[in-house]
């Protein structure tokens, strides 16, 4: 029986990933805060033959999160997907600090806590896989979403470091770097949304990348190629390109 944990399973990508992995012989441990949505996702996955266990908690509650993870059986795959976004105001107002504080707790600190909590069992078995949900915004910070970009850049660096550290022990770590994927969070973000993908398409690409043990799973092309160039070009030129694309404030 393969055991897969997906946090943020009520989000667009999270629910699509749950559906993608749902099959006989799979136990899905699904985390999400919206219990009505989580129940619908679980029902759909069970209809595909998977065993499903659901859990709802605020990942910012460190002790509760730690206690829950400690009680789980050893996991084969952990997709750390729970996240949130905030952005500058339409007139260039700073991001509200309470939102920035919550975002860093959810996107970065909780993600790191989850990874660290599941590692002992994986190291003891000499196998396991962890996927961290970063973003193409982790390559170069967008002016409209500074805190979000910072959190995703942090996850990218953290995941890459984990991969280098843990690969000799048989533990695979991948960083997922999506572009724009249809979701309420994506729709709320200011700026254009080029090369928008559906959640199902994104989930398929993620599963394929994880099966191949890709260090970075980035999409869609050519947006991922362009984002990579923003990171390596002189910063002054990259800022000009980003503003030309419509991400200025």
Automatic annotation (TrEMBL):
GO cellular component, one term: membrane
SUPFAM superfamilies: NAD(P)-binding Rossmann-fold domains (SSF51735)
Keywords per UniProt: Oxidoreductase
Record-stated family: Belongs to the short-chain dehydrogenases/reductases (SDR) family.
A GO term for molecular function: oxidoreductase activity
Matches recorded under PROSITE patterns: ADH_SHORT (PS00061)
Pfam family, one: adh_short
This protein's name: SDR family NAD(P)-dependent oxidoreductase
Domain of life, per lineage: Bacteria
